[in-house]
Design brief:
The structure holds two protein chains of two kinds. Chain A is an alpha+beta fold. Chain A is built from 14 helices and eight strands. In chain A, strands 2, 3, 4, 5, 6 and 7 form a six-stranded antiparallel beta sheet that branches. In chain A, strands 1-8 form a two-stranded antiparallel ribbon. In chain A, helix 8 packs antiparallel against helix 11, helix 9 packs across helix 10 and helix 13 runs antiparallel to helix 14. Classes of the chains: A alpha+beta, B mainly alpha.
Chain lengths: ~350, ~325
């Protein structure tokens, strides 16, 4: 009796042995992963739509019988002229044949593989036949959008604005974060709360006077309104950097101080080298923000096509060419290329930064 | 040898606790203000100053085209808003959208985080990166992609719905379906919330789940009694931020209708109406009043949420 008891326990614990158990665990993992793949595919399906449409022939999406993939109608030459190819059912077999003579009830076809053979008469309405297509990605959508938009110019504008404002935002935010993290001064905590509160302050409430001032300064139609305000630090960046700076032991500051380093020197030689992940995260945040910003450039640069960033230009482009989805999707694809590539290269540092600013509030 | 060590120790004990770290001396205070200086200047010049100026502006009829005709009009602008059909419409539009979009965003980001938090999921990092990625696509570009995807003639969504024998709605040109359509577009913006929720889920002590499992709790009960309460500070953060973002909604609506607010003003969000009044019609005074209305709405709602949440949000540390 005592020998059977452990065996029974083992069976009830693992249902029917360790192999079945690991098998069931494998099924569980596989089905959950499958579920995630389905959700993810649905989530990213519009991207597939974009890529597909960007390579389609103009008007393909509204052509009846055309496939979804980028395709052109298949044609063949017969006696020096091009004819469309249709899938023709003859004697239970479907053959791809050139439609040479169109008739209402009877048409004549030629085999594109052997144009010298006798033409094949076919009884039936050719309009009911399926036209044959071949895979043909259209690169012209990209070249057209590229030149119509003056894309290199836009890319330069966007990158220059983004880099300049990122530089200003990161430097100023690092200084301010250092001030909050390492020095005691009257009203520090109250000021820090004010800083955090500016996150939920709708920017509209400061927008109009700022616009009036920038207009009076003659800054409308220049990059200055897009860059100068970022030289004064921003709450998200300061918060993230301050959290990071506070985790650096003060002993290091003090050691540097003994060596005669002043506050600026300590920031440059001790704090910043130890905060590379946070600096990278803040840099990326601001770079993406500046690259994607729409409202402020719309306000100040809408009438200046030469110095506009991409976001304004492609919105305008869409207003002009909204009836040509192939061009619009090609332009969208080109616009998102840089930020998406940068994101994939730096995603680890970037996503860590999101978590720090969000959770530690 | 002993001489040199003695000589070293004395200065360290004196300098090791330097003046501007032991007590907040005048010098430490000065350095503090020097370093936060850029932000303080910005606060005065770009936030506090303009805020006051915009309040003053809202009490005038200032018009950028005729700046000399400016005159103090008291609360006229605010009185006028109460009967301005565009302002009333924009409030209705923004609230209708917020009621659909905020729960959708919060639900989707929590759902995605729960999925990504499951230890059974193979390749979690790949999924996390790909679910996060769309938020990095420039908003104008992603909106253009969705406009194409939702198109009734050439888009894919209605083709897929049609495959199941149902005729899809006219997402973008229908006053009713435009809000679900914009909420769908908003799903590409869940990335940040998803990551923050994920970090929150990972910080829930696993002992709690183990204890509950021993007590025979169901998965739903554990979610309801452990996950939600422990996640409540993060959900509060999600709610406040998505509220602020929703009330500033602009780019997608502007891109979709080229600033017209179609169909039939169904996308005339508060911010779009403000943009039109202030910059298309140059009515700066009236625009400033609309901005203050927006500000007051956001403040009241945020305050309301915090008051509502005070008793319901669980904080692990008492110092919060």
């Amino acid at each position: 009796m005592t020998t059977t008891a452990p065996a029974q326990r083992l069976r009830s614990f693992g249902e029917s042995g360790p192999i079945a158990k690991s098998y069931r665990r494998y099924i569980g993992r596989a089905s959950l992963t499958m579920f995630a793949i389905i959700i993810l595919s649905a989530y990213l399906l519009p991207l597939l739509y974009m890529v597909t449409t960007a390579f389609q022939q103009p008007g393909q999406a509204s052509t009846a019988g055309a496939p979804v993939y980028p395709a052109a109608p298949l044609t063949g030459t017969y006696q020096g002229e091009a004819y469309p190819i249709y899938a023709v059912p003859i004697d239970g077999v479907t053959r791809n044949l050139m439609l040479v003579i169109k008739g209402r009830e009877d048409s004549t076809f030629v085999d594109p593989a052997d144009p010298t053979a006798t033409p094949i008469p076919w009884h039936g309405r050719w309009r009911t036949l399926q036209q044959a297509f071949r895979f043909a990605p259209e690169i012209a959508n990209f070249t057209t959008a590229w030149s119509q938009l003056n894309f290199p110019r836009l890319l330069f504008n966007t990158a220059a604005i983004a880099l300049l404002s990122t530089l200003g935002a990161v430097v100023s935010s690092a200084l301010v974060a250092y001030g909050f993290a390492r020095f005691r001064f009257p009203g520090r905590n109250a000021l820090f709360i004010v800083l955090i509160a500016t996150i939920i302050l709708p920017f509209q409430v400061t927008l109009l006077p700022t616009y009036v001032i920038f207009t009076k300064l003659g800054w409308t139609g220049t990059w200055l309104p897009l860059i100068v305000p970022h030289l004064f630090a921003n709450a998200y960046n300061v918060f993230l950097l301050r959290q990071y700076f506070m985790s650096i032991p003060r002993d290091l500051d003090e050691a540097a101080m003994i060596d005669g380093a002043g506050p600026f020197r300590i920031l440059r030689s001790v704090i910043l080298p130890m905060s590379v992940p946070a600096i990278v995260a803040v840099t990326l945040f601001h770079f993406f923000f500046a690259w994607n910003d729409f409202f402020v450039p719309l306000l100040y640069l809408a009438a200046k096509p030469d110095i506009q960033p991409l976001s304004i230009a492609i919105q305008h482009y869409n207003a002009l060419y909204s009836t040509q989805p192939t061009l619009i999707q090609a332009a969208s694809l080109m616009t998102m290329a840089v930020p998406v590539i940068v994101f994939f290269l730096a995603q680890r540092a970037f996503m860590r930064g999101v978590v720090v600013t969000g959770v530690e509030k | 040898m002993s001489d040199t060590t003695e000589a070293l120790i004395v200065p360290i004990s004196q300098v090791g606790r330097p003046r501007w770290h032991s007590t907040p001396s005048g010098r430490e205070r000065l350095w503090g203000f020097i370093f936060i200086g850029p932000w303080l200047i910005g606060l005065v010049l770009l936030t506090a100053g303009p805020m006051i100026a915009s309040l003053v502006l809202s009490l005038t009829n200032f018009d950028l085209v005729h700046p000399d005709a400016v005159r103090f009009v008291g609360i006229d602008n605010y009185v006028r808003m109460a009967s301005d059909p565009n302002v009333l419409k924009s409030l209705q539009v923004t609230f209708s959208f917020a009621i659909i979009a905020i729960p959708v965003t919060m639900g989707a980001s929590l759902g995605a985080a729960l999925l990504l938090n499951s230890p059974k999921l193979i390749g979690r990092n790949v999924f996390r990166t790909l679910f996060y990625m769309p938020i990095q696509i420039p908003l104008v570009a992603s909106t253009l992609v969705w406009i194409g995807f939702l198109n009734t003639e050439t888009g894919w969504l209605n083709a897929i719905i049609g495959f199941f024998g149902v005729k899809g709605p006219d997402w973008i040109n229908s006053e009713t379906w435009i809000y679900p359509a914009l909420s769908l577009i908003g799903l590409w913006g869940i990335g940040n919330f998803m990551l923050i929720n994920l970090a929150g889920l990972q910080s829930v002590p696993t002992e709690l789940y183990e204890a509950a499992r021993i007590d025979g709790a169901s998965a739903w009960k554990m979610f309801r009694r452990i996950t939600i309460p422990l996640m409540s500070p993060i959900l509060l953060y999600d709610l406040v931020i998505s509220l602020v973002v929703t009330f500033q909604y602009f780019t997608q609506a502007y891109t979709m209708t080229n600033g017209r607010g179609d169909p039939n003003h169904a996308t005339l969000f508060i911010n779009l109406n403000l943009f039109n009044e202030a910059f298309t019609f140059s009515r700066m005074g009236y625009g400033a009043a609309i901005a203050w209305l927006l500000f007051v709405i956001v403040m009241v709602l945020t305050l309301g949420i915090f008051l509502f949440a005070r008793k319901r949000v669980y904080y692990a540390g008492s110092d919060r």
